[in-house]
Structure prediction request, 62 residues.
Amino acid sequence: MVRHELVRRNKIIGYIVIGAIIVGMAYLAYWILLAKEPNSRFQNIQKFRGGQAPVEVIYRTV
Prediction:
């Protein structure tokens, strides 16, 4: 009986760990997709992904 409860507890812990990994990967994918949008607040993330952050140039007309 004790062995059965131990296996059941380990299975529940395993499912929690797998679920946390899946949720973490989904969050990371969502975060990376936000960085690809043109007017994103997270454009500096591209530096961490090996690219350069886009530089916006503002021209003033006099």
Notes: Residues 2-48 form one domain. The longest helix spans residues 2-35. The CA atoms of residues 44 and 53 lie 5 Å apart. The two ends are 84 Å apart (CA to CA).
